[in-house]
## 1
Amino acid sequence: MLNYNKTLPNQLTNWAFSETAFKPLLLGKCESIMSLGNGYMGLRSVTEEPYIGETRNLFVNGTFNKFDENEVTELPNAADVTRFDMLVDGRRFSLETGKVEEYSRTLDLRHAELIRSFVWENEAGKRVRFSFRRFVSLDNTHVIGMKMEVTPLNEGIQFSVGSGINAQLTNTGSQHFHEGEKRIFDKKYMQLEQTTTESKVHFIIHASHRLSLNGESLEIAPKMDIHRRKVALSYTLDIPAGETFTFEKMSTVHTSRDLAFEGQELSVMKEAALAQAKEADRQGYDALFELHKQAWANVWDRYHIEIDSEQEFDKLALRFATYHLVVMTPAHDRRMAIGAKGLSGEGYKGHSFWDTEIFILPFYIYSRPEIARSLLEYRYLGLEGARRKAQENGFKGAMYPWEQAWPTDGEVTPVWGEVDVVTGLQTKIWSGFIEQHITSDVAYAVWHYYKATGDQDFMERYGYEILFDTATFWASRLEWDNAKGRYHINEVIGPDEYKEHVDNNAFTNYMAHFNMELAIQYYNELQSERPEILERLEESLKLQESYTAWTSKINQIYLPQPNEDNIVPQDDTYLTLEQIDLTKYKNQEKVGSLFREYSLDQVNKLQVSKQADIMMLFFLLENKFTPEVKKANYDYYEPKTLHDSSLSLSTHSILAGDFGDSDLAYQLFRKATEIDLGPNMHSSDAGIHSASIGGIWECVVMGFAGLRMLDGKLHLNPSLPQAWKQLKFPIYWQGVHLNVHLTHSDVLITSSSDEPLALTIKGNDVLFHKELHLPL
Ligand code: BGC
């Protein structure tokens, strides 16, 4: 049902994909994977005419609200502007009636435009061509543009269309807004105000229409409606056969979270927003779309990655990933971050997880370091909530929330999840209490960013503080085991969420150790080179006391070692658990099939993993383990890993590449690219998987090109898949812009700097000026 070979005008291939038939039971997939956005807001690509089962979502980044005491804060579903109620000869237009031909709905990635068209024949045999276009502007991030063309082909029709701003929506039942004021100015500009119930964020949404027949502007007196949480205008006209009615709708969205309106009266925002709505209406779809196209042209120039592959899908998949990375990222505001579903669905409530630091941040570190910095500043602002969480749990320092929303909110992980198939009760979600590796994941990301960019200013303002206070958390978290004479970290969930309440999850212990190691190293460096920074932080962080805690404990932290078979135990009990035949779950079509037969409690007692855990450790701290140990563990854990989390495949692909198995690496990469873009029509109902999308970039650049930052040095260890002839990509390294061009036989790197640049290629250190060309 998805066509991946769509050619755009000018013979552009692999820049678009289409849905080729309308299936009312499969609405979610394209709503999500074709969603539009610009980091400021995200709009699910719901059809204009409504259907049962649709999920009409508009999210504005950072506008979190808590519905009531029993729920956690979430990104509220703002008023909808996309719905058109249409009548043809007095009967409701719907693709579920009549006949539909030439149907296609396409996401044009190059221009970030959604295009839907078809010929519809009603029960009376009247044939009408419909075409719809839509964009969420990257040029002016407050603007949504829509355009519909209706052409009766054989007989004239009477056509009615009503559309406005509809705030009668909820987040699956939770209504996050107070009823606000509504108004129509000049019988044209609709305005709806809504304010979130708890966080008191004001939204001002405007919309207006432009009508024309065969390109000539039409003035039709609209019917004006204002109802509860809704304002709309509707028009009725006769369209003769062969003539084209064009209906444009320009909408604008502003909120009191916008930096431009911080500290301003609501009236100021309303006035500015109305002026912008009028200006958008004056310019119209085509003119605004041109500006949007230009903004996207700049995006594609900047993130230009070229894959020469026998498999055309690979090119499309990488563009799809880049597209979504751009639309999900709030590059404009450091108080905001990336949700696990981006802005494409209600899944995970708009919250941010380690997904950002570990799976998405590398893309930004190496392609737009300033955005990586902004995302890390979000975590800096999150220190307040992290410190509160530590205190509430009886610890010191900063304990990052497993799920973070507005930076100061602290922990927002919900407590109850899916059904337990044994008891019929909801399963308790323990992550917010005991999935603690997020704290060292944030510290790791700070270090990764710093080493790859050399951004000293960031470290002095934010980075050291994060590293020190997270290390202090770990020092207070460690538990002394008298019998063993060492520190343990008990009662946690590691990355593999199918093992709850475990002791000494290897990933958690090693990463906590690494976090403390970093703090000690930078403390020592600062003490001899920049003691004034330590002095500044002394008061708030009690650094001397913390330093004593780090240094006195670090060498006694238990770091699980490979056993006689070279296997690093994932935790204290994993290797002792029952093993079952996992074949049918490994071959599952839909993730999570295990839970049709087992409860989470039962799964906890089996050697089965949801996602990469030890493999993730090998990827992040690769220097700490020998190739033999890594391979032995891969062979042990991969068959037990169901990849039920979308975060898993990319890591296993990269690891397979590290072991020299580029075929397997490629197979796993392909599976990762199919999580959202592939043919499974239910995989993305609740939204796209942002970490897996970041993981696609990681597979290409960190996997096949083998780009890594190791001990502060840039490494390339390319191993292209057989299906690829060449790979070209740009990166930033220490402020220098590099273009890397790889084939199976050689590497060409050009540098924007006159300074010599050192890097390690396939284990050999090289130093070059401007250009490096080497056989591989
Ligand atoms: C995964 C986590 C991930 C979260 C959000 C869960 O299913 O197990 O690792 O952070 O989804 O994507």
## 2
Amino acid sequence: MYEIYCKLRDEKGVKDADVVRATGITKSTFSSWKNGKYTPKNEKLQKIANYFGVSLEYLRTGNVPDFIYSDDNVDFLIEVQRCSKDTEFVNRMKKYMSLLTNDKKSVDDINVKGKKVLVRCDFNVPLQDGKITDENRLVAALPTIKKLIADGGKVILCSHLGKPKGEPKPELSLAPVAKRLSELLGQEVKFAADPEVVGPNAKAAVAEMKDGDVILLENTRYRAEETKNGDEFSKELASLCDVFVNDAFGTAHRAHCSNVGVTKYVDTAVVGYLMQKEIDFLGNAVNNPERPFVAILGGAKVSSKISVINNLLDKVDTLIIGGGMSYTFSKAMGGHIGTSLCEDDYLQYALDMMKKAEDKGVKLLLPLDNRIGDNFSNDCNIQVVKRGEIPDGWEGMDIGPETEKLFGDAVKDAKTVVWNGPMGCFEMPNFAHGTEAVAKALAETDATTIIGGGDSAAAVNILGYGDKMTHISTGGGASLEFLEGKELPGVAAANDK
Ligand code: AMP
């Protein structure tokens, strides 16, 4: 609840005065509230007073009271609505609350019989000589597509593929996707070849559709407006359909025509099953985790995960930091790191985060030892040394065996584990031990295990532990932004329940 308030205050500019207006509690009553002891006469309002009392207390003293309200957001919202005459404020609250409670309308909440349904999918698959080399994203899109076909919708699929930079590039055409999707679905997916994406060919193909038919539009990034969220292309996409479904989590952190702009011109905009699953797993893990909650961060740079570290320290019981980013922490503590990756601009930040962890009582685990190499290649000379004892000319490329045990033990009794970023240069087999040990530990724990997209997902799959995880996100950047606590425009644009 406290985080919700901070977001409202920081990102939406909600003022305490708004709360006073919305709830009808006078400002003086509000400010007399201290440490949760104040009881408003109207008991139902106490929930609201408590809720914002936390924030007022925080603003006054800079200290967050040591309790967390786990009241059900819906009750809270009902009270705000009941008490407030300020509809604009209520709507703002409603929009924001529903975002945090994953309360978006989904394909289960609409009737698409006989309707034209535009579905934004993530068909951004790797291609080699026109062949799809990893079809996970196609398979992941099938449940929503099948549901819409079964319900009698006219299903118009769209997606981007690669970076054609606003012009038609035959090697980035979605034609091979239409072919493979037809095989996977067991019914024809007609490809609406059209360099304008929504040009005469696409419009004619849509006009001929019967209930239960499926077509796929050309790569949305053939149009330069797509990534600029331009109005023209958004309107053109919207003109094809009666209903819009967003099932592309991988692009949810971007506001583009085909996932955000189009919703301005379509009344019904909902999320698909894949998107819903991502929001449920990541949202629940971060905002409502079963504890102990352990987060594991790795990867190359501290700077790309600054906000993630900061945000997660407010939520986790244990934060594990491995991978290339751990050497910045090691150096900040006065260690020798040889030629290991390091961001000198973030040494102070690393110390600040260690202090924050200590202040909050969060266990922060850093590597105890490292596998190091004398050059950046798989067959360099290798040795294991203690953290902070890396000789000149050597580079930390993986965590060492003691650290594997430390990290593995830390997830044993966890109830929720979120992992983003490899523990070392896992692409080189000699430096994949640490990442594999963590993957194995996650595979063996009873906790809910959630793997961020991108490199961590690739590592888990390559190492053969994919099917042992509770959820592997399909979005790299999007899952990272979720962990940062940011609002994802692609999710926000869908209708609230
Ligand atoms: P990121 O995109 O930040 O999650 O970083 C993933 C990349 O970090 C992978 O390609 C890893 O090879 C790389 N990485 C992890 N640990 C190290 C390390 N100790 N030194 C250099 N690169 C690393």
